[in-house]
Design goal:
By secondary structure, the chain is mostly beta strands. It has strands at 2-7, 10-13, 18-26, 28-39, 46-51, 57-59, 67-72, 77-82, 91-101, 106-110, 114-119. Strands 2, 4, 5, 6, 9, 10 and 11 form a seven-stranded mixed sheet that branches. β4 (28-39) and β5 form a beta hairpin.
């Protein structure tokens, strides 16, 4: 089994910053691409940013220049630094990881989510 645990969410004023962390644990052989997604109640979940094992990053257009995704392969962690936050960034943020486990199986996992609220 593999578990993803997010942390770092909270309440922040517009213009402020938060750093989210995703820690993967369990029967992990290789942590492949990891992404941060967000979802507002009643809307579809959307990709925020993703990072490959080799460090190639992808960002949604509205996050470019404000958010930075990074990872530590030795610790199986992926962080999302969020700067210049806006009220429209308010959402539940989820970590998603493609994982190869110790039996060689490859599948996607999701964390439980962490709430980010940006006040105006």
């Amino acid at each position: 089994q593999v578990q993803l645990v997010e942390s770092g969410g909270g309440l922040v004023q517009a213009g402020g910053s938060l750093r989210l962390s995703c820690v993967a644990s369990g029967s992990i052989f290789r942590l492949n691409t990891v992404g941060w997604h967000r979802q507002v109640s009643g809307k579809q979940r959307e990709l925020v940013a993703a990072i490959t094992r080799g460090g190639i990053t992808t960002y949604a257009d509205s996050m470019k220049g404000r958010f930075t995704i990074s990872r530590d392969n030795a610790k199986n962690t992926v962080d999302l630094q969020m700067n210049s936050l806006k009220p429209e960034d308010t959402a539940v943020y989820y970590c998603n990881a493609n994982v190869q486990d110790l039996l060689g199986r490859v599948r996607d996992y999701w964390g439980q989510g962490t709430q980010v609220t940006v006040s105006s």
